[in-house]
Amino acid sequence: MLSRLLLLCSLLALSACEKPSNDHPLFSLAQGKRWTYEVETVYDNPEGKTVKQKIEFHNLGSATLADGSTAWLRRSSNGHEYWFQITNKGVDRVAMKSPLQEQAVMDEEPRQVLPNTLAVGAQWKHNTLPYFLRRRNESPAEFRYVDKYKSIPMTYVVAAKDVSLDTPAGRFEQCVRVDGQMEMMLWHDDGRTYKPTPLLTREWYCPGVGLAQFERDEPTTAQFFQGGQMRMRLIDFTP
């Protein structure tokens, strides 16, 4: 499988302050922009708990990839790096680097973040994984570290437009809400059987700021699982 992946150059020269000529109005990649979010994860009972943290994302500008194309880099305060390209169809993530990797690795296929056409009902897909759903008595505990759950297709749909949204960073108007759903085969105590179980996301993108709020539902379906809800809300933005 490794032979199918493209590695990015280890030395990447980021350009001066700049932005794409076709920058997306709801997902700007312009250099210098910063977003700070409060992330709250509420785990289900028993052993329920609430975990709060802050995370920041920073646009670092453009760089040339190993194949000679241009991409735009966004880095998180926890050390992850994400590479994006803008096409005539929308914004795609094309590579990612974790803090444990020396080089960014190209995605096998581009993962569309937002299409250019945002009509209500518009749909697209890309693979994702569970964020925090975990097994109580097995190792590794988190499903995201189990091979068969590392890449599951999620379907996204533009659920609503012209939405108003209140966040700690302020009130935003004319936002677009994108809903996502993927299904995992999980054991259910109530029916004593495995069955497809939806994991849901809701994302709010607002003009001038981009992603202003994100929610994820990953349900607890058995006593040896622990799921819950996560909400990420914008608390500060530097344009």
Low-confidence stretches: 1-16
How many strands, what sense, and barrel or not for the largest sheet? 12 strands, antiparallel
Oligomer: single chain
How many beta strands in the DSSP annotation?
14
Task: Kindly report the spatial arrangement of strands forming the biggest sheet.
Answer: 6-5-4-3-2-1-14-12-11-10-9-7
User: Which percent bin holds the helix content?
Assistant: under 10%
Q: How large a portion of the residues is in β-strands, by DSSP E?
A: over 45%
In short, what is this structure?
By secondary structure, the protein is mostly beta strands. It has strands at 34-43, 49-64, 70-76, 81-86, 90-97, 105-115, 123-128, 134-135, 152-167, 170-188, 193-206, 210-218, 225-226, 228-238.
Q: Care to describe what's here?
A:
It is a single chain. With 239 residues, this protein is mainly beta. The chain is 0% helix and 57% strand. The protein is built from no helices and 14 strands. Strands 6-5-4-3-2-1-14-12-11-10-9-7 form a 12-stranded antiparallel sheet, with no helix packed on it. The protein has a two-stranded antiparallel sheet with strand order 8-13. A hairpin with a 5-residue loop joins strand 1 and strand 2. The protein is globular. The N terminus is likely disordered.
